[in-house]
Amino acid sequence: MSAELDPDAALMLRVKQGDTSAFAQLVDKYKQPVMNVAYRMLHDATEAEDLAQNVFVQVYKSADRYRVSSKFSTWLFTIARNLCLNEIRRRSRHPASSLDAPHPEQDDQPLHQVEDMKTSAPPEHLLHGELERKIGEALAALPENQRLAIVLCRQDELSYEEIAKVLDCSVAATKSLIHRGRETLKQRLKPYLRTGAWGGAK
Amino acid sequence: MTNDPTYDRLRELSWRRQLTAGEAAELCAWLAAHPDAAGEWEAEAVMNEALGQLADAPVPSNFTARVLQTLERESAAESRRRWGRWQLWVRWRWLPRMAVAAVVLVAGLFSYEQATRAARRAEYAKSVAAVSDVASLPGPEVLKDFDAIRVSNPSSAPDEELLSALK
Question: Is A24's CB within 8 Å of B68's CB?
Answer without folding.
Answer: yes
